[in-house]
Design brief:
The protein has helices spanning 21-31, 53-62, 74-87, 96-106, 116-136, 144-148, 161-169, 205-219, 230-247, 259-275; strands at 11-16, 40-44, 66-70, 91-93, 151-155, 175-179, 198-202, 250-253. With 277 residues, it is of the alpha/beta class.
Length: 277
């Protein structure tokens, strides 16, 4: 009858050219399959030079540990595996076999750029954050968003402020929008925003008249409502342009323009302003 070995807590060295999250998750998942259910995890991130590897492997071997690694660069992987073999140390390559398999299937070479997944994750969360921001500060509902926004969009109703802000959010730009209405004072916060972060939208009166007429139809409201009155529209546009000129912001005529076209102009203004700071 076999005598059970004394339980020991394994020491797992996580070696990575990025922060090592992926390898650590694999290590913890594997350890959970054993009765002990725990291990001493030692994460060694940002390994990028061959001369770092022998000392890491020697230390792991001294403690009778195991190495789990995610190294993108082939020469680093080869050195680590060779050192581990020299010390008789178990070393598990997480990325290498997958990269090799994908290379065979696609016929293309990997980019060999450490930390790409983390970069993608950061971009994803920045996009989500910008979308949530656009929703929260849509239509001037909370003036606090004006000072926190990357871009503040101004314009009368139905000039496409909300779709524009959502499009910018998908580019990871936090955009708030403020409707300009003659009877409603412009929030004081707008006047504290640098002009390169302010964009005014204008539109030809006849074009806006037809858009508002359609809007009234959709809502089941009478076509002669003040909202779609031609004189009212001209008055709103004149007021809005006066405010925009006082703010010194760029004014974009959105008549007949797709949101993508307007957004490209907004981004051009925004990034040019950043470069000139």
């Amino acid at each position: 009858m076999a005598v059970p070995r004394e339980k020991v807590q394994p020491v797992i060295y996580i070696v990575s050219d990025s922060i090592g999250e992926t390898a650590e998750l694999v290590g913890r998942a594997a350890v959970s399959q054993f009765d002990a259910g725990n291990a001493e995890i030692r994460r060694i991130p940002y390994v990028s030079h061959p001369e770092e590897i022998p000392a890491i492997v020697a230390q792991a071997a001294e403690e009778g540990g195991v190495i789990i690694f995610t190294l993108v660069m082939p020469h680093l992987r080869e050195i680590l595996l060779a050192e581990a073999k020299r010390h008789g140390l178990p070393a598990v390559d997480i990325l290498g076999p997958v990269l090799d398999a994908l290379r065979r299937i696609t016929g293309r070479e990997p980019r060999f750029e450490p930390g790409l997944m983390r970069k993608v994750d950061e971009e994803y969360f920045a996009r989500v954050e910008a979308i949530e921001f656009a929703v929260k500060y849509d239509d001037g509902r909370d003036p606090r968003g004006i000072t926190e926004a990357d871009v503040v969009v101004l314009g009368v109703s139905r000039t496409g402020k909300t779709p524009l802000c959502m499009y910018l959010a998908h580019k990871r730009i936090k955009a708030a929008n403020v409707p300009l209405v003659p009877e409603v004072p412009v929030p004081n916060e707008v006047f504290s925003v640098p002009s390169h972060r302010l964009v005014g939208l204008t539109i030809q009166p006849d074009y806006l008249f037809s858009i508002r007429q359609e809007r009234l139809k959709t809502l089941g409201l009478p076509a002669d409502a003040e909202y779609a009155n031609a004189e009212r529209i001209r008055r709103e546009l004149a007021y809005a342009e006066d405010v925009m000129h006082r703010l010194g912001c760029v004014i974009i005529d959105v008549t007949g323009k797709a949101v993508e076209e307007t957004a490209s102009k907004v981004l051009e203004v925004y990034y040019r302003g950043l470069r000139q700071r």
